[in-house]
Amino acid sequence: MQLTVWTYEGPPHVGAMRVAAAMEGVHYVLHAPQGDTYADLLFTMIERRGKRPPVTYTTFQARDLGKDTAELFQTAARDAYVRFTPQAMLVSASCTAELIQDDPAGLADAMRLPCPVVALELPSYQRKENWGAAETFYRLVRTMSPGTERAPRSAGDRPSANLLGPTALGFRHRDDVIEITRLLETLGIAVNVTAPLGATPDDLARLPAAGFNICLYPEIADTTCRWLERQFGQKTVRTVPIGHGATRDFIAQVAALADVDPSAALTGSNLPWWSRSVDSTYLTGKRVFIFGNATHAIAAARVARDELGFEVVGLGCYNREFARDLREAAASHGLEPLITDDYLAVEEAIQALQPELVLGTQMERHIAKRLRIPCAVISAPFHVQDFPARYSPQMGFEGANVLFDTWVHPLVMGLEEHLLTMFRDDFEFSDAGGASHLGHCGPAPLPADRVSTMAEPSSPPASAGERAEWQSDAERELLKIPFFVRGKARRNTEKFAAERGLAAITLDTLYDAKAHYAR
Amino acid sequence: MSPAPPATLPLGCESAPVLRERGQREVFCGLTGIIWLHRKIQDAFFLVVGSRTCAHLLQSAAGVMIFAEPRFGTAIIEERDLAGMADCNEELDRVVDRLLTRRPDIKLLFLVGSCPSEVIKLDLSRAAARLSVKHAGTTRILNYSGSGIETTFTEGEDACLAAIVPELRADASDAPSLMIVGALPDIVEDQFLRLFAELGIATVHSFPARKSDAMPPVGPNTRFLLAQPFLGETARALEDRGAIRLDAVFPFGAEGTTSWLHAAAMAFGVDEMHFRRVIAPGRERAKRAIEHSRARLDGKSITFLPDSQLEVPLARFLATELGMRPVEVGTPYLHRRHLARELALLPADTLISEGQDVDRQLDRVRAAQPDLTVCGLGLANPLEAEGLTTKWAIELVFSPIHGFDQAGDLAELFARPLRRRDVLRV
């Protein structure tokens, strides 16, 4: 038994749902008790889907156990077929149904439903969500595109590729697909099939027609890509185009496989110039902690170090299936990898490292918020606010622009950072008050010792009559002082005058005060 | 557009036929109650003994992770536990030891059964007894089941409270005392306690209490009022201890709250004039507050899909105090005895349904096209996309809605989706 507070991944059947919900013409019959329907809200609420996920839950209860749960399953499957008439059906057991061993595969087989039925073995007590999605996609592809022969490509055909891996509830999958499709378009490469997102089972039968496969999300598509390689000899592009450099590498690989000229697509992103421009100087060596699924975390580490000039101080992932890749990446950054699905272990690591920026999942955002460290989300699991209305890919050149903006905005900006240092004791410019561009975060509550110093009025608490009068020349001189220090100069001078019991503030008083407070 | 107000329609669903359905249910399981129970009992920890699905449910239903280390968690059963490579009981003891070492502030630990733990017949009551001995003097350990094969959503609270009842001290005093039963937000609980004090009822307890060592005593002198309609097992357990349930409609709206308070006032011999005087200000405030939403809701039709068992009392409130027309009132479980007075106040043509076959029920919703559909989070956006206006049922469980001073908020919860529908020009 493992004590768990929060989990990064759901059970494997949630992964199967992500594939089913992404596709058209698929229906999933899940042998499960009531309550498992909670998973629907992930799709309808976090992703704001306007459709229920195509899932029928058999909803067995305690009184059904040992009696007719098998019949319940068959009734549910039959009704679901009649109501939804899918092109293909998925069947499996959730964690509880796995224990009662009703064998959905055998039961579905015996029913001879008039559509292909893919029976999934999803061991809930060993595996998790990403694995479930990968397995489901692989089983569906195997069922829908049997055979070993590819249709021969005629000489005049445009080169084509499959985009594999995007699912429902994927982090920015919707926008990544648009971005990469456009990019391929500029190279003159057609997208044969994008799957699972938006594909039908019949589309999967067309996968072998493409020249090669693009494994956009290895967590979900790697198993399938390997099988397609073996079965149809289709090559796979494995570079994940997250970041400016990775996108260029991706283009080079794709162009080589398709035998096209890459130059048309190498337009680039704004990231290199934004990163070289002087305001970004302050990004140099910012200590960043990165955690997420392996693919996004590894890509983020490269961008952070090579493209933003950060120092990566921690790198980890929660999916053990890709631990090897992450270990290699961590080694290249000279780091100990953190491979764990224990939220508390991640929190401990962040606390110990005290980074200046956290790039992580919804969980790390929560940790960072508690520790008052700026944070950006780079990976699933994510919150409804990480599924934006606007176009916001992570991949391709536009993705690189998005990365620059979303990682840098939580930090205090260059010039502003210097101002905050200069005026750190002035309450209007207090860094505890937060930076002006982070207004949506609200000011952080001040520590108690700060509050007490701030509560002191800048002028002595004397009555108005006792206050030193500003002489006109001194007042005119004050106006020459830059506006952002003027308030401080005025208060300091008034305080200086009051402490000395001066009735009037002259030009000399102003400069005496300046000398007095100079550090 | 505006049909005859419900008041002129024949009332009474108490003996109307109930549509009983079974099929796919779109409801939470009883584990979900942990979300509000752990806030209510402030020194309790809820340890679900279950699967990754249970852990995932808890964090998804909570919607956001509010606390870094909440007072609930899941002991996830793994392959080696099932394969017999590890002894489940030893594993559970180890997890509990680790947990209590980490959280010495925990005074009451619930081992919460789940679908997998029920199916593998892991005996949590024995485990609780064993662990109670081990941790005697520091932490009390109880168990209940929140599994989906046995409990629907709010039934989890019922099971939890019913598990506490046998542990309550025997009430040895001679004077009658009043017990308010059901987890209420603290602010609402305090409002009720103030009212009962003003009415002159000397001893009033809330169950559950905010601290595990402050749970009320129970005995033949206990008179209890259910604050929630889903506490059938808890009521039975209290009756087994000699307590007597005061029958009342539930405290929603000006009238519902009046009737609920009145049941206690009568049982404790409070003078009728005094009762009227004490409740008048609250009752008037409630009526004024409700009035803001009346124009928006009057004559509008509403369907409740089964969710929390609050459906029947809420439909009664909306029908009798705001002029809404219930079309179908679905509930996961209909407790006829506890709801008898509520059912009597519903318009006679209301379809009462129990259980669920969600696809068939949605067919009825589409056919009836109610002005407002109250449903779970999994269904709300899909129905909105079809052009139906919805209200998330879960908000009715998480928000303070009981009593006079929340009546306006309660009405507003239903009025807001309709107002939003009217103001949007996109």
UniProtKB/TrEMBL annotation, chain A:
Substrate binds at G414, L415. It comes from the Bacteria. The keyword Oxidoreductase applies. Pathway: Porphyrin-containing compound metabolism; bacteriochlorophyll biosynthesis (light-independent). Residues 440-470 are annotated as: Disordered. [4Fe-4S] cluster binds at D36. Residues 12-411 form the Nitrogenase/oxidoreductase component domain. Pfam families: Oxidored_nitro, PCP_red. Its EC number is 1.3.7.7. Keywords: 4Fe-4S, ATP-binding, Bacteriochlorophyll biosynthesis, Chlorophyll biosynthesis, Iron, Iron-sulfur, Metal-binding, Nucleotide-binding, Oxidoreductase, Photosynthesis. Protochlorophyllide reductase is composed of three subunits; BchL, BchN and BchB. Forms a heterotetramer of two BchB and two BchN subunits. Belongs to the ChlB/BchB/BchZ family. Component of the dark-operative protochlorophyllide reductase (DPOR) that uses Mg-ATP and reduced ferredoxin to reduce ring D of protochlorophyllide (Pchlide) to form chlorophyllide a (Chlide). This reaction is light-independent. The NB-protein (BchN-BchB) is the catalytic component of the complex. This is Light-independent protochlorophyllide reductase subunit B. It comes from Sphingomonas natans.
TrEMBL record, chain B:
InterPro entries: LIPOR_BchN/ChlN, Nase/OxRdtase_comp1, Protochl_reductN. [4Fe-4S] cluster binds at C29, C54, C115. Its cofactor is [4Fe-4S] cluster. It catalyses: chlorophyllide a + oxidized 2[4Fe-4S]-[ferredoxin] + 2 ADP + 2 phosphate = protochlorophyllide a + reduced 2[4Fe-4S]-[ferredoxin] + 2 ATP + 2 H2O. It is an enzyme of class 1 (oxidoreductase). Pathway: Porphyrin-containing compound metabolism; bacteriochlorophyll biosynthesis (light-independent). NCBIfam families: DPOR_bchN (TIGR01279), PRK02842.1 (NF002768). This is Light-independent protochlorophyllide reductase subunit N.
